[in-house]
Each structure stands twice: as structure tokens, then as C-alpha cells.
Amino acid sequence: MLRQHLDRFFGLTASGTTAGREVVAGLTTFAAMVYCVAVNPMIMAEAGMDRASVLSATCLIAIFSTTLMGLLANLPLGVAPAMGSNVVFAIILVKQMGVPWQSALALVCLTGVIFMVMSLTRLRERIAHDIPDTLRIGIQVAVGLVIMFIGMRNSGFVVPSPSTFVTMGPITSPKVLMTLAGFILTPVLVARRVPGALILSIIALTIVGLFLPDGKGGTVTRWPEHVFALPQWPHATAFQLQPLYLVQHILYVLPMLFFFLCTELFGTLANLLGVVTATGMVSKSGRIPRAREAFITDAAGSILAPLLGTSIVTVYSESITGGHAGGRTGRPALLIAGGFLAARFLWSLFMIIPPQATAPSLLMVGMMMFQGVRHLDLSDLRESAPAALTFIIALLTGNLINGMAIGTFSYTAMALATGRGRAIPPVVWGLCVILNMLIVVYSRRHRHHA
User: Fold this and answer.
1) In angstroms, rounded to a whole number, what is the distance separating the alpha carbons of residues 41 and 59?
2) 313-315 and 158-161 as β-strands: parallel, antiparallel, unpaired?
């Protein structure tokens, strides 16, 4: 009787799948995306946030958002804090622009509210088509390169150099050797399509770190006091929003609000379309099934996430692995949420993971984002130049805003110079003006503080 009720609610038979396949699909997707429980707190800690609280918030928002995705949208998708947006939050918004992390969370929450309105009114789908592909790809690749650099820097694989600005760390250092081994192991696991390749790599390297000296009398990985522990509430980060800063510096933070809007618009749309297309779930007319419900889900998650203490959420592209395993309905999403619930009782194990163990996974995440380059027509400078300027300048200056500003300026200038000025969308005009105003303001602030 229960099986029949579940079949009717989720539509297993109508979707051409079975309960057994959906169980495998849910476990496969969870294994592929659980690395975020280790990586997201490490990135958000760059903003001065408590790592244990962010870990708890990461699990809680993944449980909520993925459960909602399964019940409301009836899709086999995992939802969790977005890799890339967390880097922009911690490194750009907080460290470089000097926005307090409590106010940065308020900005993210505002983004989620705007998203909810856009999702309910279907404005979201219409705006998604106004940003040119060259700028989308440039921003995506820029974030990927920043993610890779952060992983290498935090692990000690690259260190400051007075002559070349950065150089490789001492190759005889156990930390550098451990990271280098991960740079070889992780791509091999991914290339061989090993289920849960990233989390397996993190586990293996963390275990190796138990036996490597850290040069300070201890080991790279420290033994945990407990394996199982009662879940903690994110006391240090939950409900800490401070919106007053946003009111006082609205013009200064406005471009970052636009960035998070674009990230959420295109990130979830791209991942959602990629998953349903790769698994054959897209309709004959090319429409995404229950897209509106999926957009409402990640908008709700992006409102709750900063209230708990983390950045915006998104549909994970790793959900493709579950789709290939037979996931077609919302049941795998409930299993994924159950996996994150179990991870809450193992939080003490996630806390001992060293940055040398997560750096290779950050490298792979960055490489996946870098793959957008293949969609560029490199023979057409009108398309390739703005994208290239976006990610090269963002990487070399260590500032995504610089890259976005120069990239959009390049796009508008080349469009005007080649007689295509009328084709420039109003959104791009606004982005160009706002971003270039911001880098002027930012440079003056930097000069003043210097």
C-alpha cells in the first residue's frame, strides 16, 4: 500500500524508473556532492566566520533545499551552497571590499528575496536570456580560476614571491607533496568515473595527513576527539544579519547584488538544464519539467541560507550522476537530504580535514567551471576578447569585479565599434556603468586606506 502511494505521489512508473534505481541514484548523487560539507566551511572561514557553524549551516540548508526540491518540484536534484558564489562572498565581498560578513549575509538574503519574486512572476526566465554568452562564460571561468588559486594558496602549494608575486612552495615540504599527490589522484578518480570521486579523494588525503609531520611538532591531520557527535546549531552565524551597512553603502554593494543575481539566475538554470538534458528528462519542445518549482526551491534556499550562515544555494551539476543511475523523480532528492542529515552527526570528522585534502577538489571544481571556454568561438574576437579579458584580469588582479568591469566595457565597446550597438541589452549597459563606477570607487578607497 505504501509503495503504491509513493508511486502515485512521485510518479515512478510514469517516469520509467524503479524504487531500486532511485535509491542508487540518491546515494550516488550524495557521494558526488558531499564534498561541499568540507569545502564550503573552509572557504567561508576566509571571511572570518566560524568554521564549525558554517559546516552546520551547510548541512541544514542542504537538507531543507534538497527536501523541498524532491517534494515540490519532484526532481532528482541535490541543492547546497554554491561553489564559486562562496568564494565571491568570502574573498571579494568581505576580504577585498571590506563588507562585514554579517552585512554580506544580509545582501545574500536580499538576493534570495528578489529571486523569489522573479521566480513567482516568471521574470527570471526572461532576464536569463539578456546576458550575452560571452559574459556568462567569462564570469564562470573567472570564478573557476579564483577557486583553483584559493585551493593552491590555502594548501601552501603556492606561496608569495618578491620577484614573481607567487611561486610554488618548497617541494620537500610534506604539505606540498601531499597536495601534489592529490592533484594527480583526484583527476584520475574523476576521469575513471569513480562514484564520489571528490569525497573519496578528500578522505584518502585526510588519512594520509595523519602520518605526515606539519613541521610544528604535530601532523597535517589531527586525530578527532570523537567520531560521532551530536549535531550543533550554528550559534556563531545564525541570524547575525546586519542590513544597516547595505543602506549606508548601497551604491558600493549594488554591483555585488547584481553579481549574485546573475550567479543564481544562470547557475541554477545552466545546471538544471544540463541535468535534465543529460538524463533525457527535457520535453520534446525543449522545456525543463517543473522549472518554476525548481526556481522557487532555490530562491527559498537562498533566503534561508544566509539566515543560517552561508551563501546562496544552487542545483549541483553532480546531480547528473544520479540521473544516469536512474533517478527521475523527487525520491533521490529525499535520500540526498538524508545523507546530509547523517553528515550532521559526523561533523567532528569533517572538522579535521586539512586544506591540503580539499585543494585538489577545489582544483576539479574550478576546472569544471573552466570548461565553459569550449563554448566560445575563439575565431571571433567580438565574442572571445570580452570573455578572455574578464577571467584573465580577474585572476591576475585577484578581483572578480575588475574582470567583470573590463569584460563588460570591452563587450560594449566592440559592439559599438562593429555597428552592433543596438543589439546591446539594457542589462549589459547597466552592468557596464555600475561595475566601472565601482572599480573607480574601490580604487579610491584602496588609495585612501593605503
Assistant:
1) 10
2) unpaired
Q: Is residue 79 within a helix (H) or strand (E), and if so which, with residue range?
A: strand 79-81
Q: Are 343 and 59 in contact (CB under 8 A)?
A: yes
Distance, CA of 159 to CA of 352 (rounded, Å): 23
SS3 state of residue 351: helix
Phi, psi of 33 (to 5 degrees): -115, 0
Give the whole-angstrom CA distance, residue 127 versus residue 360.
Answer: 35
Q: Cα-atom radius of gyration of the chain, to the nearest Å?
A: 22
pLDDT digits (tens, 9 = 90+) for 355-377: 898 888 878 878 877 887 888 88
Nearest to 76 by CA among 344, 308, 292, 334: 334
pLDDT of residue 141: 84
Q: Which of 60, 57, 97 is nearest to 398 (CA)?
A: 97
pLDDT digits 0-9 by tens, 408-417: 899 999 999 9
Show contacts of 50-55: CB within 8 Å, 24+ apart: 50/234, 50/236, 50/237, 51/351, 52/232, 52/236, 52/347, 52/351, 53/232, 53/234, 53/235, 53/236, 53/237, 53/238, 53/309, 54/234, 54/237, 54/309, 54/310, 55/347, 55/350, 55/351
Does residue 67 contact residue 304 with C-beta atoms inside 8 Å?
no
Least confident of 178-187, 198-207, 323-332: 323-332
Taking the C-alpha atoms of residue 248 and residue 296, their distance in angstroms, rounded to an integer, is 30
Strand-strand pairing, 79-81 and 158-161:
unpaired
Cell matching residue 436: 566601472
pLDDT exceeds 60 at position 47: yes
23 CB contacts (<8 Å, ≥6 apart)? 331, 332, 335
pLDDT at residue 186 greater than cutoff 70: yes
Is the CB of residue 234 less than 8 Å from the CB of residue 308?
yes
Which three three-digit cell numbers place residue 105? Answer: 549575509
pTM of the model: 0.74
pLDDT above 50 for 448: no
Q: Is the pLDDT of residue 449 over 50?
A: no
